[in-house]
Amino acid sequence: MEQIMIDKIEFANLTYKKIRADMINLGHIENRKGIKILGLFGFNMIRDFEIILDTRGNQLKLYRIDKAGNRITAVPSGFKPEYYQPIKSSSNILFLQGKIGGKILNFCFDTAAETNVINSYSNKSILNTLTITRRSVLHGAGSSRSDVLFGRMNDFSMGNRQINGMETIVSCLDALSEAYGTKIDGMLGFNFIEQGTVCINFVKKQFSIQFTKGNEK
Fold first, then answer.
1. Are the C-beta atoms of 200 and 69 separated by less than 8 Å?
2. Per-residue pLDDT averaged across 167-174, rounded?
3. Domain range for residue 11?
4. Contact 57/77 with Cβ under 8 angstroms?
5. Rounded to two decimals, what is the model's pTM?
6. Domains in the chain: how many in total?
């Protein structure tokens, strides 16, 4: 992986200058999705905004905020959160807590992950709540790949909301835990994000979600 400096990048009404980026081959993602991908951008690009992500509506909304994390302009968003959670972050990585089998677990929140992940070294009481259906191949952002178990979560909850049937893979996350300097029990990806509309405010250190009607369990 090579690191480069981008003089200027623009999207919508935002302009960034002198941005460092990792240069890697994204060809395998392009081939699988059948679309040209020029790059990926992370939370470091938008952490100074209030972020609302609506996968059902296919929208990413960014609101300018002040130093206290409040919106500078009071623009109605239609977002009515049902659940709040304080977040922890490290190097633009966001961590959330969820519960499986009555145990509180530490999840890495990754909007680029197509599915959820449970650490294969989790307690047996946690792994026993999963339904394993087959083996699959896990692809990273680069060209790396590994064989993993694929299945579904049957006992995941966040706050008072229980969410059953989310797809997940079971894989060792010890290297990820070491890289981020914290124990990671799992990862929440697209299968979690599509449960509702998500709002992230790094300044207030707050995560909130408005669950989609029909996803009640």
1. no
2. 91
3. 1-41
4. no
5. 0.84
6. 2
